Structures are given as C-alpha cells and as structure tokens.
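Question: what's this shape?

___
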Amino acid sequence: MIKRILTGLTLSASIIASMSDAIADTRYISDELEITFRSEPGGNKRIIKMLKSGAPVEVLSVDKKSGYAKVRTSGGKTGYVLVRFLSKEPSAREQVQTMQERIVELQAEPDQIQSRLTQLQEDYSSLQQQHQKTSSENETLTQDLAGIKQTAANAIQIASERSDLRKQLTDFKRQNADLQMQNLELSNNVQQRWFMIGAGVVLGSLLLGWLLPLMRIRRRSRSSWSDI
C-alpha cells in the first residue's frame, strides 16, 4: 500500500515537473552567436528564424522534459527555444554594450545639463523681461485710468459750473429786463414831470401876460382918480 502511494507521488511529481510553467518571465538569449527559434519543441521541428545573442524574449512556459521553453519575441512571434540558451540576465556582451552606451550618456549629460541650465536661465530672463513689461504696461494703464477718472470728474465739474453760469445768466437777463422796465417807467415819469412843468410854465406865462396889463390899467385908473 505504502509502495503504491510512493509510486503515485513520484508519478505526480514527474507530471508536475513536466507541466508547462504558466508564469510569464523575461529571459535573454545567452552568449551564443545565434539560436534556433522553432515552431514546436524538438530539434527536427521547423525553424521560424534565428535569434541573436542578447535578444529579449518573454517565457510563456517551460517543458523540462523536452528542454524547450515556449517564448514570445519582442516582435510578437511565438515559438520554442532550448532552455539552456536562456539567461535571466542579459549577455555579457549586451551588458558591456549597455554600459558603454550609459557611459556615453553620462559623458554627454553634463553638456546637456549645462545646455538645459543655459536655456532655463534664458527662459527666466525672458520671463523677467515680460514681467517688467507687464508691470510697466499695468502702471501705464493705471495712470491712464486715473487720468480718465480725473477728466471725467473735471467734465462733471465743468458741466455743473456751466449749469450754474446758465442759471446766473438767466437771472441776469431777468434782472436786466426788470431794470429796463423800471428805467422805462422812470423815463416816462420824468417826461410827464417835464411836460407838467412845461405846461405850468406856459400857463404861468399866459396868466402873467393876462394879469400884467390888468395891473397897469388899474394903476392908470387910480392915477386918474387921484388927479381929479
């Protein structure tokens, strides 16, 4: 009984070991010049293409029994390669090339940083100039607005003064008309007085002219009676 159980466990372990690993993993072609990329696991299966050393592939499953892994290339093609040609790290040649490229980048970065710093300084200077220009324009607009307000206030004051002057002019015209009326009345009164005076003088003259002869006649008459 125990022997059967052990046999079953061994068989199960073998089956589990031969099952495909469902966890996707990224591996790299090891330091070989090229390896075959086949349509199915097996050395006699159709070769889809040759994969160069350092090419990244995505491991979809592993068949430990056949020694092949199902992978997907960066171009999206799916096929099989030998597991022993896969490495978790990029190939040494690939790492060296990557390091060389990084060194070139690091050597170029100071110049890029300096160029970027210069550009930022120019941008900052431009922003300062724009800020100063905006501040100057804002100050000018503020002064213009103050001038417009002052002009409006002056216009209101001028309109008010003009209204007052018109009112005063109307009053002066009315007073002038009253004075002209009074002058006309006074002139009429003076003319009437002079007319009365003239008439009195004339009447007085006529009366004197009539009385004087009478007074002479009476004097003569009295002289005659005194002589008799």
Observations:
- The two ends are 223 Å apart (CA to CA).
- DSSP finds two helices and seven strands in the chain.
